[in-house]
Write a structure and sequence with these properties.
Length: about 240
């Protein structure tokens, strides 16, 4: 920006060099713009540098002696007695790395005590999904205590960005991403669509409650008998 007064105290620390400060507004300053050299404005130098790094890694892995895996402390390595190079190539699917605990895997749908899907087709997950990869078609439930259930529940894993917002938005603990499985490779796009049946096949029973109040709202009241649970009376419609 233009200025009629030159600053005699230039900033000698890190950051841009201040040439002048405006008389009318002290926060308006003129900074020095460093233009790149003509050799840096082309991609030739950067391309040559990148190829050099690639060739260096190739020669290092091909000709140098191999290192023990224990010497590298590689996380997720399956066999500590094997010898591998510094830059590891995992021979998938024979070798697989260990995924972190917070890895968001393939979706699955949880079940009720009668093995029916917990989803009540509230449409929270397709609403919050930023990739618009979830499709739910609701239908009337045969259970008088549940208003709706999904007739169709599909997730396009090729569009999913694994953000986990569908899990956070679900009020019924009906959908999870804790399978530890990544999306399977497919040749046809239709094969990458997870259906209600495929996600239920990976599902487990959930005894989560909705509508609890107080400090102990996470606790589940257990009645006599196997796997019998109760829910607070103020739970939302459709929850059990």
């Amino acid at each position: 920006m233009g200025s009629s007064h030159h600053d005699t105290h230039e900033d000698q620390g890190a950051g841009p060099v201040i040439i002048s400060v405006s008389d009318r507004h002290p926060r308006s300053k003129t900074i020095q713009v460093v233009r790149p050299e003509s050799a840096d404005t082309t991609f030739l130098a950067a391309t040559a540098k990148g190829l050099g790094i690639t060739l260096k890694h190739f020669a290092k892995n091909l000709f140098l002696p191999l290192k023990k895996l224990s010497g590298r402390a590689k996380a997720g390595a399956p066999d500590p007695e094997r010898f591998k190079n510094d830059i590891e190539t995992v021979q998938y699917p024979e070798e697989r790395v260990i995924y972190p605990e917070r890895f968001r895997g393939l979706h699955r749908l949880t079940k009720r005590e009668d093995d029916s899907v917990r989803c009540v087709a509230c449409m929270c997950c397709p609403t919050v999904c930023p990739a618009n990869c979830i499709t739910i078609v609701p239908e009337e439930s045969t259970d008088s205590s549940i208003e709706k259930r999904p007739a169709i529940f599909e997730i396009d894993e090729l569009r999913c960005i694994a953000c986990g917002l569908c899990v956070e938005a679900c009020p019924c603990d009906a959908i999870r991403m804790d399978t530890g499985m990544h999306a399977h490779p497919v040749e046809d796009r239709a094969d990458a669509i997870e259906t209600l049946e495929s996600m239920l096949a990976r599902g487990i029973r959930s005894v989560a409650q909705q509508g609890g109040q107080g400090a102990n709202w996470r606790e589940t009241a257990v009645l006599p008998g196997p796997e019998k649970h109760t829910t607070p009376k103020n739970g939302p419609p459709g929850s059990r």
